[in-house]
Specification:
Blueprint lengths: L1 E6 L11 H7 L7 E4 L15 E2 L5 E4 L1 E5 L2 E6 L11 H10 L3 E4 L11 H5 L5 E6 L4 H5 L1 H7 L3 E5 L12 E4 L6 H10 L2 E4 L2
């Protein structure tokens, strides 16, 4: 299945992308699934959208972009009520303890980069190697970590506008029907960045 793993709705103050537009245009943009990853919240339910397969076959997964002083992480799991003041280390331990998964988001973005200890100490083994809002230079810096560490690579548009939706895609292999099967596929590394 082809996903955009990193999409913000207008619930994130920095985004102008309406959930209705995501649902209307995702399939037209070649997506089988979208991950809604608003900043510090998974409360997309307030829009009335339900997680799971929509009428047109689009799979919607709820996640969150969790911001810490040592980097931002896309997290997926039972985190609707998660506290929002964890350090990176405590967040990543919490995610593992609760059978979730975390992706190090836009790891070399100036001012929002992921600290190397997170990768070196194996706190997070999945990295967003291509981010649609990063410069080519920032995305290329990830190659150093990829050559040094055994990392699962994903990509995401980091969409804040309709034009950005689906810009960077990730193929998630296997039978993906819900958040749990999506998490299992990520943990197994059954993903491949496409759409470059």
């Amino acid at each position: 299945m082809i996903f955009d793993l990193h999409v913000h709705t207008s619930i994130s103050q920095c985004s102008r992308l309406l959930i209705e537009d995501i649902l209307t245009h995702a399939v037209k943009k070649g997506l089988d699934g979208v991950c809604i990853t608003d900043h510090q919240t998974m409360d997309i339910r307030q829009t009335g959208v339900r997680e799971g397969v929509q009428e047109d076959g689009l799979l919607v997964i709820f996640g969150m972009e969790y911001e810490t002083q040592d980097g931002d992480f896309l997290i997926f799991g039972p985190f609707e009520e998660i506290q929002t003041d964890f350090s990176a280390r405590n967040l990543l331990n919490y995610v593992k303890e609760h059978d979730g998964v975390a992706i190090a988001a836009h790891p070399f973005r100036p001012g929002r980069s992921v600290k190397e200890y997170v990768i070196r100490q194996n706190l997070c083994g999945i990295i967003e190697s291509v981010n649609g809002r990063n410069s080519d230079r920032d995305n290329s810096k990830v190659k150093k970590w990829i050559s040094e560490f055994d990392l699962v690579q994903t990509g995401g548009s980091d969409a804040h506008t309709l034009e950005e939706l689906g810009k960077i895609k990730t193929e998630v292999r296997g039978k993906i029907e819900c958040r749990n099967s999506f998490i299992r596929a990520l943990k197994k590394g059954n993903v491949k960045v496409i759409g470059l």
